[in-house]
TrEMBL record:
GO cellular component: nucleus
CDD domains: KH-I_ASCC1 (cd22419)
Biological source species: Chanos chanos
GO MF term list: RNA binding
Protein name: Activating signal cointegrator 1 complex subunit 1
Matches recorded under Pfam families: AKAP7_NLS, KH_1
InterPro entries referenced in this protein's UniProt entry, alphabetically: AKAP7-like_phosphoesterase, ASCC1, KH-I_ASCC1, KH_dom, KH_dom_type_1, KH_dom_type_1_sf
Length: 354
């Protein structure tokens, strides 16, 4: 079925199919080979390359691509095999900066169609391996207002008083109150240029955010808890629900539009049809790493290392717990594994609602 229904990747509005092949690659890491979803042939068809400028030179054609240095190794391949294959198949030369040096990959060739083909191959290769990078930043709504922090600490105290005997329930799995937040979407920003670009994209969201909010903060209530797996006796993450006090869908609309904008910019990969408006209050990842962050809910890669907890009594006794209300007035690009002077995540960009 993987052959009949290969993974599709959208790059700059064009759809490519991803064909996985097994090779020796970075200690048995899987290497990926890709092709454009048009007609198959021994040569790549010439096509418009809107995202990059193809320059004509005295010796042929040239194109420079901005690539984060962390991705160089995937284009080079083990012993340079990937680059050699790309150069051989597209009849081009691919010049890559030294590892760790941020710069541009320069592709040259005698024919414009050859350069376009190599650019396409490199872009699809980059996009595939970019998705394998751990996320570095995330769009967040801060929920750490003093009223909510106070309510959260009361929730923690009462849960430990009433449910500490339940399997897996202990102080280590509770969120840091200063870092209470709602994750809108995650991003792997691999160099300073990408962080700057993400900040610029956030500022471009000002018009639709102000249109939705009317230029005013959004009164929200953090109230109620929920879980997202099938068995309440074996839970890894417990969430607090977030509601707009006037019953509107303003916050949902903003979150969905933000994801749509960042996905369109190529900085974010869509994981869900709609953003789930909730904030983590208990997480078994915190047992070993208090700074841990989930990516889009349960982190399946860490499931085997996690000890779930029995949330049945917590859900029964605290299902409608009121953490607090406040006026939400901003969205920010938060840096993973960071802390600012307030105890929240360091910001790489912020946009106010009012």
């Amino acid at each position: 079925m993987e052959i009949l229904r290969p993974t599709l990747i959208n790059i700059n509005g064009r759809i490519y199919r991803k064909n996985a092949i097994k090779e020796e690659y970075y200690e048995e890491e899987e290497e990926d080979d890709f092709s454009y979803s048009g007609p198959a042939s021994a040569h790549f068809e010439d096509e418009p390359c809107d995202a990059h400028k193809i320059e004509q030179t005295e010796k042929g054609f040239r194109c420079a691509i901005d690539v984060p240095s962390v991705l160089y190794k995937y284009i080079i391949g083990k012993k340079g095999e990937t680059r050699k294959r790309l150069e051989s198949e597209t009849k081009t030369s691919i010049n890559i900066p030294k590892q760790g040096v941020e710069g541009q990959i320069v592709i040259t060739g005698a024919q414009r169609s050859a350069v376009v083909s190599a650019v396409t191959r490199v872009e699809v290769l980059m996009e595939s391996f970019r998705r394998k990078q751990p996320f570095t930043h995330f769009l967040s709504f801060s929920l750490n207002h003093p009223h909510v922090q106070e309510g959260f600490l009361r929730f923690k105290e009462e849960v430990l008083e009433q449910c500490a005997q339940d399997h897996g329930v202990d102080p280590s799995i509770f969120q840091n109150p200063a870092k209470l937040h709602l994750t809108v979407g995650t991003m792997a920003l691999l160099n300073e240029q990408e962080v700057t670009r993400a900040s610029e994209v956030l500022q471009q969201c000002q018009d639709f955010i102000r249109e939705i909010t009317g230029g005013k903060p959004i009164p929200v209530e953090v109230s109620g808890i929920e879980y997202m797996n099938d068995d309440p006796s074996m839970v890894d993450v417990l969430y607090a629900k977030v509601h707009v006090q006037d019953g509107s869908d303003k916050l949902q609309a903003i979150a969905d539009r933000l994801v749509e904008t960042f996905v369109s910019s190529g900085l974010m990969v869509r994981e869900w049809d709609r953003v789930k408006l909730h904030g983590t209050v208990m997480n078994t990842l915190f047992r070993k790493d208090p700074s841990a962050e989930e990516k889009g809910g349960l982190d399946r890669q860490n499931m085997k290392d996690r000890e779930a907890f029995d949330a049945r009594n917590i859900l029964q006794n605290f299902g409608s717990f009121h953490f607090g209300s406040f006026e939400l007035n901003s969205v920010q690009i938060s840096q993973r594994f960071s802390t600012d002077s307030t105890g929240y995540y360091s910001s790489a960009g912020q946009l106010a609602f009012s």
